[in-house]
Specification:
single chain; mainly alpha; Molybdopterin biosynthesis moea protein, domain 2; Hypothetical protein af1432; two-stranded antiparallel sheet; 20 helices; binds fe (ii) ion
Length: 434
């Protein structure tokens, strides 16, 4: 691949043959390392010249290695080498569609280049009738334009604090969720405590067991009981997961005419999955918290869509007509944007501060006091918008905050791995949660 914008997208089948860097999913036993391999924290793992074994590959996964320099290897195209060949005309069409989504991004940045390329590949495969694990790229639906959009009489005069009060009333926290939150907020809650709380809700228990036994965790043996799941996954992690499952139920109970709720939930779940994967590469222990952060990050939009439907409708229509970011139009047309109102709602619900911060700052992560977790959600949101998995109303890929990306110290290859892992987890999790 050349570095220039045009040469980058010349043909569907041009392969990066300049380096032997392969991502983890492409590594196979008997491949030979062309240079020393180190873990993310700099720890030396394997010497140049080592012939990889199955055991090595397991260890590399545990250490969060995302790529390795392999002797004589040619980097394949985003791990999609098993996909059928793409007709150049289909590729061109896919490129035109995807470039539309990237109009606000800086295509000189390697992250955006990689995401655009991944997005075109997926779109081209979709247009050819081949879909990775059935993940569809979504076109967000739009509200009916004739339905009072932007008219003076349609404007809601609610003030933000009133709006928040009404929202809290609208979706009172279920008892179990309140108890889960209480357990999470206690500094030393025991595995038994969380197992006790969760087991009072049989649907929740069954869902959690299904998730624990899915590709989301990829454990080699079946986990039959909740108490065992808590022991293996961890108390904090299981509490966060339980909270996520209950929160999705709240989403489902909020009526919304302005957008397709299924698409909203898909965007949220995909964002949660990607965020958890990125958090794993940052060696964050409770990656489930980032999963919940991804589920919740756009919850403020549901508040706006419900309580300021006229302004929200105008913002959605203007975003499409003017090809602008929905978040910017919220700033212009509403008293609070969705990050701010979502953060305030989570604060009212007494959710952990980290989730409030993630939600409040995911579009401006470097404004947060501790920007790491909002930065993870910021990048996860960009990845999911690039791939077009569901939508919370946004049609365009938000611009990447380069300082936030730099802060995460992730390799561009991590994006490829994250997309592959998301594909393998999304459908299953979607089935369990929706
Ligand atoms: Fe957002
Ligand atoms: Fe989002």
């Amino acid at each position: 691949m050349g570095g220039g914008r045009d040469s980058f997208f010349l043909t569907p089948l041009d392969r990066d043959t300049s380096m032997g860097i392969l991502n983890l999913a492409e590594l196979k036993p008997d491949m030979v390392l062309a240079s020393d391999l180190k873990a993310r924290n700099g720890r030396f793992l394997l010497a140049k010249g080592t012939r990889l074994t199955t055991q090595h590959l397991r260890v590399l996964k545990i250490w969060g290695v995302v790529e390795a320099d392999i002797a004589g290897a040619e980097s394949s195209e985003e791990g999609l080498e098993a996909a059928p060949e793409i007709d150049p005309a289909v590729w061109k069409r896919a490129e035109t569609i995807c470039r539309e989504r990237f109009i606000l991004t800086d295509l000189d940045h390697p992250v955006n280049q990689k995401l655009l390329r991944l997005s075109i590949l997926r779109k081209a495969h979709e247009l050819s009738g081949w879909r990775p694990h059935g993940v569809l790229q979504a076109e967000p639906s739009l509200p009916d334009e004739a339905n009072g959009a932007g008219t003076e009489e349609g404007l809601s005069l609610l003030d933000p604090s009133q709006l928040l009060k009404e929202e809290v009333r609208l979706s009172t926290l279920p008892v179990i969720l309140a108890q889960i939150i209480e357990t999470i907020n206690k500094p030393n809650s025991s595995p038994k405590e969380i197992a006790n709380v969760v087991s009072r809700d049989t649907t929740l228990s069954a869902r959690l067991l299904r998730i624990v036994n899915s590709a989301f965790y990829g454990f080699p043996h079946k986990i039959d009981t909740l108490s065992r799941a808590v022991l293996i996954v961890g108390t904090k992690q299981m509490s966060a997961l339980a909270m996520g499952v209950k929160v999705i139920n709240i989403f489902k109970s909020i009526p919304c005419d302005l957008i397709d709720m299924k698409s909203f939930l898909e965007h949220s779940i995909a964002c949660g999955i990607v965020a958890r994967i990125l958090a794993g590469h940052r060696s964050i222990t409770n990656t489930e918290r980032l999963f919940v952060g991804g589920l919740l990050h756009d919850i403020g939009r549901l508040v706006l869509y419900n309580h300021m439907p006229h302004e929200a409708r105008s913002a959605l229509l203007a975003a499409k007509a003017e090809k602008r970011l929905l978040n910017d139009l919220e700033d212009e047309m509403m008293p609070w944007n969705h990050g701010r109102i979502g953060g305030s709602l989570l604060k009212k619900w007494r959710l952990p501060v980290s989730l409030e911060t993630i939600t409040r700052y995911h579009h401006a992560p470097t404004v947060a006091k501790d920007p790491t977790e909002p930065a993870i959600i910021h990048v996860a949101d960009i990845i999911v918008n690039s791939l077009g998995i569901g939508s919370s109303g946004e049609r365009l890929v938000p611009p990447l905050n380069q300082r936030a990306w730099g802060l995460l110290e992730l390799s561009v290859n991590t994006l490829v791995l994250a997309v592959q892992q998301t594909d393998s987890q999304f459908q299953e999790l979607r089935r369990f949660l929706l």
